[in-house]
Fold each of these.
Amino acid sequence: MDTIAQLLVSGLMLGGIYAIMAIGLTLIFGVLKVVNFAHGEFLMLAMYLAWALTSLAGVNAYTALIIVVPALFAFGILIHLLVIRRAVDKPHLIVAFATMGLSIVMQNLALVLMTADLRDVPPLFGGTPVRIGSIYLRAELVLGFFISVAVTLALMIFMKRSYIGKAIRATVQDRDAAMLMGINVPRLFLLTFAGGSALVGLAGCIMVPLYSTFPTVGLNFVLIAYVIVVLGGMGSMEGAFLGGICIGIVQSLSGYYIAPAYGQMFYFLLFLLVMLLRPNGLFGQRGAAMVGINE
Amino acid sequence: MGNRLNVFIGALLCSFLLIGGVALQLRPAAAAEDLKLGVLLPFTGPWAKNGNESYVAMEIARDMINEAGGIAGRKVSFVRGDAPDPSAGKSEAERIISQEHVSLITGTYASPLGIAISAEAERRGVIHWETIASADIITKRGYKHVFQVGPAASRYGIAAIDFTNEELAKRLNKKLADLRIALLWENRAFGTAVGGGVRARAEQLGGQLIYDEGYDQFMTDMTPLVQKLKDVKPDVLLVISFINDTVLLHRKAKELNFEVPVVIGVSAGHSVPDLKDSLGTAVNGIFVSDLPALVNPKALRPEVEAAAVEFNKRYESIQHRVPAGHAVASFAALWPLFKEVLPKAKSFEPEDIRAAALSMDLPEGSLINGSGLKFSNFDLPHDPKDAGQNIRSAIGVWQWQQLGARQVWPAKLATNPIVMVPLPPWSQR
Amino acid sequence: MSVAPVSAPARSWMLPLSIAPRRGALSIFEIVILAACIGCVLLVSNRYAVDIMIRTFLWVGLALAWNIAGGYAGLISFGHAVFFGIGAYASTILLLSYDVSPWLGMGAGALLAACAGTVLAAVCARLRGPFFILSTLAAGEVTRIAALNWRSLTGGSEGLEISPAAGAANMVFESQAPNLALVLAYMLALFLLSVWIEQARYGYCLFATRDDEDGASAIGIDPRRMRISAMAISAGLTAIGGTLYAQYFLYLDPTHIISPDISFQFALICALGGLGTASGPVLGALVIVPLSELLRGALSGAASGLHLVIYGTIVIAVVLYFPSGISGALARLWTGLSRRPAWQRSERL
């Protein structure tokens, strides 16, 4: 009993953290309909920044949010102007490769500049775990989870109530119609890409106390992020959150009851299953996957 | 706006190309009479950290020998080849062998690289001097030009079990057969091979593995693993992991309050000096079955001890940390090559180098990690297909003490006694 | 390259992938390139250069195989490493365990891969765009992990090694020349196949399916069958390339063979060379493969990772500035140079 409880709760918490990473991606994927292969490297950049602030300025990773999130927002604007914007109206293969090239450049720039050494930040609260009954959790994990929940709720409200949120949802549903309704779609693209990047910045700050940072750290997470996005449905905040939780729990349970050697295989299989049975994901718009790009 | 961006991108591209061009020009050019050796290591890719550190160690060996006048009056120079994966490794080996006409290539750190690159060397009749890659198969293919200076992977596993049998069992007040041993191995080449050695030796000595699982090195969540280990309650945890997963594993163990009396890591992730930065004082008490690091000076010949001291001094001043096992092994493999093998060779042609290598009969204590140097040559009674394996390569167990590596086994290499058995609870680590 | 311009729908963010069916046989341009390749083969003898040529021509062939599914049928697959791996492993396992010569094993691998391709296409038939891409990626990863853990079959991460002494009957050669001849033959065969597809009814049906599925089914083409057949053919041909790779490199391990990097390389070569043309993959491979090898060779002496930074930047630049690829850019240049009024010149061929 204790075992299952531990597995479920840990999986849940970690899933919430994966979700933050995926929320940025689901926005980008949903609005711009581009596969951004450099998403993992954005995360890496955020983690390095958070680490740098922590070791140079002595702040903890959560305080570093204040700088990292705007920094990633700005970085998102930069990349959008330089790379994404030119590629958005081209076949999706082009964007995939442009971002792949970006990913290679970023990984290796990090290698050249920072070397391959692992970077860690000191644990919060002396590293003692939080204990609920017989379940043990790291403080940073719990904190990260609650930040994730808060941000997801805030975003959900934002998407429902604010003008930009509605504009985003409209664009996800039908880009042409949105334009016809007077939404400045190119400007929205810029905002969404930058906003998605900022969310990755947040994810980086939350994750840096839990994972070491090194140039290829993004690779471990980028595929998880895509699985979550597809599982939850493109463009859906609650979908990304629930998808994240789902993946976290699947990972936890399959690692215990089946075999840890097969690690990633289970959520890829889950991904393929979702693609077969419900391609739009849990909360996505019906027909999105069949059409791919809205025509 | 578009035009300006175009110009910007164009300028960025040009500057990168310029940097590349400059880098090309700044490569140190080897003089014609230099003794060129090919060095194939993973400078990029997932093994980049260890590849680069191994190279630093090799450069120290090269500098030390050149300062002493080189070999037969010729200075040693390296030709670098980046081998992040076996295919690239083969291509680079091909390039170095064809373009630079080297007689010997060395490296390669990881087993898949070692297997593929040494095959290429054998085909071209060039000597392959393997420093660390440990796959058993490397020396069992009937190749004549491949020399593996470091121990085969299974020996790491055998050492761990022997250590448990000889030293740990009595400290835990149990016989080996009664000890609950858990084996956790990363499921790529090294982990699999070491795991094989553990299993075989445990069976021979009557030990039992109550848990024996491979895992995917790129797992981002160690919870199920640690939870499973918690549930089986082992006395000894034997784990083979690489650097990132080692950190994640121990952190998760602390988080879930998984207590185990003994942890034995096997090389790789557990032997990296940076582990103390990631885990802090919790790292103390962990044993590591590995190439010996700093051994008892009495175990080494005096001139070898002097070389060891010099190497450690230089490495620390360049890298600002203690050398990891692979760095020590890289130096340990090259130094006797420079001091004993190549000087003895009649010329620098591969066949003469081979003859000199096969004539080596250096006792233990001749390499800075306590190894000797004697290669098999299809003459091992239990394995006639084996050639090029250094049957005197040293393997031992050291322990993390005071955030550093202290050799504790075997006795003749040990510098410190064994402490912290069983490990104290997490709150005290 | 004599083809008629295609009229495009008015939407700016969804240009159809390039090319229309071709008229006539090989263009002068293509003949020149092929002649140059053959010339290199005959003239160059430096081992390192020959090694690069073997890799390059192999990749030309592999990219052409991918192009049948990706360029002609519009099935952008990021999982082709699976078929590559099936080909390489099937022939190698048959050789090592059952003494079957790779000359035969090649066929077995191709058949197996074609089946796998059929399954993949059938499963993912309804998906489009990024969803299809990600599904193929996921399928690739599942296969890789399965191969890694199925040690009794694939040797796991220790890999499989083919002994260099196996002999010509087992497709292992002492010198590089026979390997070079084999990959050249592979490349030429696939090129001619691609050219044939472009002129045959099958190709017309594929393009119709790719460009306008509803229209195609309206005139009686079954898009599902077209897609599945294209994927199956592409898979089988890729697998043959896999066997050729295994027989040249003589060492396989799942992590590096069934890897996303290899999958990306297929698509990247075609994207950079020009999707959907026969000469696009040729040009793409001829440029990229030597470029990355030479960059690494030249710069691995300098800072670690520098060569990849440069490589990545080049990829970004080419992909953004030449979205129709190198062949598209060349075609534009050609039509730009020819005396046509501006309104008749088009962005793509």
Amino acid sequence: MRSGDARREILHAIRTNLESSPPDRLSAPASSPPVPLSVPERGDVVKHFTEQLAAVGAQCTTVRSETEAAAALARILADAGARRVVGSDAPLVQRILAAVGNDIVIDRLERLSRDELFACDAGVTTAQWGIADTGTLVLESARERSRLLSLVPPIHVAVLSVRCICESLGDALARLSVASHAITFITGPSRTSDIELTLVVGVHGPQTVHVLLMEGP
Amino acid sequence: MTFERDARTALADGQLRGALRQATTLFGERRRAALATVPDWEGARDRARAIKDETLEHLDRYLEEFAANAERAGACVHWARDAAAACDIIGGIAERRGARTVVKSKSMASEEIHLNAALARRGIEAVETDLGEYIVQLAGETPSHIVVPAIHKTKAQIAALFADKLGIAPSDDVATLAAAARDALRRRFAEADLGISGVNFAVAETGTILILENEGNARMTTSLPHTHVALMGIEKVIPRFADLDVFLQLLPRSGTGQVLTAYQSLITGTKRRAEDEGPEELHIVLLDNGRSRMLASRVTRQALACIRCGACLNACPVYRQIGGHAYGSVYPGPIGAVLSPQLFGLARSAALPYASSLCGACRDVCPVKIDIPALLLHLRAQVVAEGVAVGKGHLRERLAFWIYTAVMVRPRLFAWLMRAVRSLRIMPPLGAWTKWRDLRPLAPRSFREQWRAGLRDQRGPDA
């Protein structure tokens, strides 16, 4: 009940104070202008996206099939010396992981305890959208369980279709739905400059973000 | 009145001033470079300010809309009139959930209400997880910069601190130090019962809260514990989801000079199905604590448009010399000098509106075009009107103006005094001003004397 009182009090204080300073002009409509639906050449957008990925310190490999994706993933994991890998529940991720070689331990997220998750070397997810202007990946919780796998292991590998690359932040926001309780924008690896302004990569989140960019159908 | 004393202490600290110069210059340069990537920066600033003005004009309506939509999505919304109420609400949630350890990501509002101390009184330990905040907390200090809280500490000091508190071998390698903090904090994330975060923007239309960061600690804080508490000032609300576009263009560029920070978390209520990832409970605490009062004037209301980027700190010639601690408030720099007196009372922060040369650099860099110099003048007028003492300079200043008035209204006294000064052919020392400058000597004869001696009769050519 006290909470209801506080709500009434705060709203009352806001209204009273606003009334004591009447508007000095007609409040102009301040809505954001509609996002222009630009239709740029797809090739340009993809090129722009990969350039921005590099600029923010993410890696990118273009693949044309699931088989190529599995081969690229195996190389990434081997190069990093990753032993334990966890995939999300996305069918595409499961299929790609199934095709990766045998010398890697593959876990399923739902079978892991929190401690085991913290001990994993790499997480594999998909990304629902890419943003070309900023080199950003967008992950939606309603589509896949990717929230922890894209955060806790030191390596995050994200599979993204070239058809899902938006040009700008505004384009991406227009496509998103809050049916997802958590939407995460990821731009490069985790970073800090808190000690003497020296850049350190991978402080709480992943040190490596690798995008497998899927071309083709 | 400790501002003057603390400012003097800071000015005498060469290491602090070097670090401040480096940080504020670097962020200023990065900011300028980042602006160039926005085709219409001025337009973006105007649009953002218009959105903020519109929101504040109808803040009651947008807050109700936000609360209703957040609750519909599964969040629990709390309203806190002041700091004590907010601490009670959060402490109550922590106790009900049986939390012993709380992980926190950066939240200025939580520092404003002294949340950590309030939780400690209930026997609950709050661990700061942003690297800079963690360093400052381990050292038992307070942040000195909004974006780089531990800018006042060298890596050697941090190495000694970590060796002492975390038991690691001393190292002057920054990556090693960061890794030590990561390991120590991972254990805290794994055991924490409750996560507390701030909020950068709250969308009325959808009930979404958005949190920006670079390290990933806010993502950990908001996704690992079973309960997430988000604390936000009531001014953080914006009307529409699409409005995020312009604010996400402005905030990272103005704050760190990044096009976008590494992570944005957009959280709308709680998880929809049991097997989803994320906390079971989301509590959003709406904090007033003096903010609604600021709506009463169009001048003071502007400060509620602030998006806490820190650009005005980096641009301010006063902040660049003295840093954040001297302001004696969780909100330092130019924006702190206008927020602190309004939030915490003029009597406690009366010196702050004077901690500025009114050069206007803060207004020029502000992404939402807050006229900070106008606000500072407004507050100075209030300090005078309310007769709040401003420090030891105040009495001397009043005495000087009393003498000045006494002389200026008595022409004969004025003439006699000026004759005396002229005949001595010296200028009085005026403290720090004449320490480095010479005042121009007075003319041998005053204008009045020249006028009486015949200047009156000389006519110009066109008369």
